[in-house]
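can u pls check wat happens w/ 2-acetamido-2-deoxy-beta-D-glucopyranose
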Amino acid sequence: MAIVSLWILLGCMYLILPCCKNAIEGQHFSQSGCKLSYRIADCSHFQLTSVPKDLPNDIEELVLVFNNIKRITRPSLSLYPDLKSLSLQFNGLELIESDTFQGTKGLESLSLQDNSISTDYIQASEAFRFIPSLKKLDLSRNGLNMNMVTALLRNLKSLEYLSLDNNMIMRLEDSVFAGLHELKQLSLQRNYIYEIETGTFDHLVKLKTLNLAFNSLPCIVDFSLTQLQTLNLSFNQLEWFQSMENDVEFQLELLDISHNMLLFFPLLPRLHHIHKLLLSENRMRFYADLFDAISSTVDFLIIENNSTNISSINLWEEEKITSNISTIQYLDMSHNHFTYLPDGFIEKMTSLIELKLDWNCLETFSISHLENASSLAELDLSYNKISELKINNHSQSFLGLRYFNVSRNDLQMLPRHIFSGMNGLRTLDLSHNRLKLCCSQVGAVGVHGNDCVDIRHLTALKNLYLSGCGMVLDAQCNFYGTTLTHLDLSDNHIQSLSSLQDTSRTLLFLSLRNSLPSNLSDVFSTYQNLRYLDLSENNLTNFPRSLTGLTLKFLDLRKNNLTFLPLYDRYENLLKTLNVVYLSKNPFDCCELSWLDVLRKSGSINIPDLLHVTCNFSHHFMSAQDLPLDVLHSCQWKTGGTLLYLLLTLPICVTFLVALLLVILTFKDLFLQALKRCCRRSTGY
Ligand SMILES: *[C@@H]1O[C@H](CO)[C@@H](O)[C@H](O)[C@H]1NC(C)=O
Ligand SMILES: *[C@@H]1O[C@H](CO)[C@@H](O)[C@H](O)[C@H]1NC(C)=O
Ligand SMILES: *[C@@H]1O[C@H](CO)[C@@H](O)[C@H](O)[C@H]1NC(C)=O
Ligand SMILES: *[C@@H]1O[C@H](CO)[C@@H](O)[C@H](O)[C@H]1NC(C)=O
Ligand SMILES: *[C@@H]1O[C@H](CO)[C@@H](O)[C@H](O)[C@H]1NC(C)=O
Ligand SMILES: *[C@@H]1O[C@H](CO)[C@@H](O)[C@H](O)[C@H]1NC(C)=O
Ligand SMILES: *[C@@H]1O[C@H](CO)[C@@H](O)[C@H](O)[C@H]1NC(C)=O
Ligand SMILES: *[C@@H]1O[C@H](CO)[C@@H](O)[C@H](O)[C@H]1NC(C)=O
Ligand SMILES: *[C@@H]1O[C@H](CO)[C@@H](O)[C@H](O)[C@H]1NC(C)=O
Ligand SMILES: *[C@@H]1O[C@H](CO)[C@@H](O)[C@H](O)[C@H]1NC(C)=O
Ligand SMILES: *[C@@H]1O[C@H](CO)[C@@H](O)[C@H](O)[C@H]1NC(C)=O
Ligand SMILES: *[C@@H]1O[C@H](CO)[C@@H](O)[C@H](O)[C@H]1NC(C)=O
């Protein structure tokens, strides 16, 4: 009895063991090499020409990506009746026989990207009859046109996700998607669609996401898909977007019409939920400023039901946006042709968080527009032609802004206290304008003047960009009350760095490119947190010695007038932390390059422009990395000065001594006699 149970036990263990072998990873392999785990079989990249037959019968997911299966047939799949998901991407699949899925009726997900389903789409369409519960189908990159798609989808009533990207669809007729009442997500990117028949998407009552990016649509008229939440129309040729004019509520939340040729701000549905509206890279502007009231009125002759009606319409009345845009939180209108924004346009967007207006032609901008946009956190006005930023004297409600970019405009002056209300401002980019910072003490003359802009006491400010503002910063100026971490002062005229004293301790990043006097005094010892320092293009003749005590990671010394760096000891702080240093375009002395060895030997330091580091040897410039031998020798002559002197003078000295000795020996007797004579005379007895 005991023996029997032992045998049973052993038998069970034998049965269980193969499965337990890799129980830790929950993974093992079939004979054909497929990876098996939790009812999933992964047979990718095997050069298989047919579906493997040795997999467990109860698998639910079969992955056959990157194989060579040109056709699939019923017997191959009927071994796996529980199959729910089948992936056949990248197989060159041409034929799906009409009874292929007869034994796998529970299939819910089928991925057929990058195959040639178009070759025999009729049989494939027949095959799809057996999988009426398919929810997810990917037919991208199969060379399909509209008729093929119509045929393929005919029997698939319960699809929820359908991708037809990268096919050859040019038109969409209203019958293409008929019957797909469950469809939630439809992607038609990268086809050649130029026409969509009215009503094509109307039956898709559950459709939430529609992606039509990268097609050739010329316009959208009477947009009426009230059920949609996300619509992507980017990268088409739209000149015009117009929604149905009625009071029906649209569910639309995200609308992307970027990278098109829109000439007008889109005519959005009157009632919608749009919070993200992407309109960058178009040709939009507002036109009312081009016309007076009379020339912008147009008479329309309307002929309907045998009666004619003439009505006058002000063309640009649409600028008084009729849609309720109060829900928009993110609006991107960058890279367009806007010269101005009509009154009330921004004021209506009371939920705005981020507004991008960069790369337009705006000439003025009124900060007061934003008075009621209390949630606005980011405003980008860079690359415009703004010469005036208007501000309401009493405006104190503009407090929420965290990011403000007005770089590359024509600003000559700013209201002096424009930033004083912006207590939350973290990032301010004023670069490439002609601006001055207020340098005098608070309360001095001209407090209300606009000749300078005051950034003192902006306690939240961390990142400040003042590059190319033509500023002259002297000892009087200060950044009092700020704790900046990132400061770009490149392309200015800094006469004294003491102006930075107030913020020097907190700075992590500092750019002083092309802005320092060449006789800069050494002032960097207080910059204890500095990690990135750009000193390039300054004609500096001396390397500031205090830099060796800092813990920099990045240092740029290009285009200066340095002849050597005072780096002797690789245990200096700087050499322990430095990761990247740029050195090229300096007249280093070829005979004083020991510092370069110190840098190169310290392991972790990368000199990206090492190939271009040159040195000067009697007016000749050569690569500092591999000096010619004769230069090295000449340098030794120069540097080994004292030793050479000794070596040269030694033979002369020896000759001289020998000569002296000979003279003494020759006249030895004479000397002795003279000596004796002297002695005798002196002993006077
Ligand atoms: C719209 O589609 C394009 C192209 O695929 C994509 O780059 C973009 O991110 C999409 N827009 C949104 C809002 O997802
Ligand atoms: C034109 O006639 C149709 C029916 O023939 C009617 O529904 C419509 O209201 C008429 N329109 C006008 C403006 O009278
Ligand atoms: C338009 O007028 C013609 C005759 O002038 C008439 O035959 C036709 O029925 C009218 N159509 C409508 C819609 O009223
Ligand atoms: C003519 O058009 C105007 C505005 O569209 C409308 O108010 C008016 O009723 C129309 N008149 C007729 C006769 O259709
Ligand atoms: C716009 O919509 C918001 C919420 O959807 C609503 O509170 C507000 O009253 C509407 N404004 C107008 C002018 O209809
Ligand atoms: C801001 O809102 C107040 C009250 O709703 C209104 O009186 C004021 O005109 C608004 N300001 C702007 C610039 O729209
Ligand atoms: C400000 O805008 C310019 C141009 O669009 C951009 O290059 C720059 O990085 C922006 N500044 C910041 C701090 O993001
Ligand atoms: C703002 O204040 C200054 C001086 O206090 C005054 O000259 C100017 O007219 C005021 N501007 C506005 C728009 O109120
Ligand atoms: C640098 O040179 C300028 C004149 O070129 C001089 O006014 C200034 O005092 C010098 N600064 C230092 C620190 O020597
Ligand atoms: C450096 O010297 C060159 C030539 O003398 C001059 O053009 C350039 O303005 C100088 N740069 C600085 C930052 O002083
Ligand atoms: C570089 O330094 C030398 C002196 O070391 C000076 O004669 C020369 O004018 C400087 N060059 C520039 C561009 O400042
Ligand atoms: C190169 O070195 C020579 C001395 O060897 C010096 O006279 C000359 O000014 C140096 N050239 C430059 C550009 O520094």
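The longest helix spans residues 641-666.
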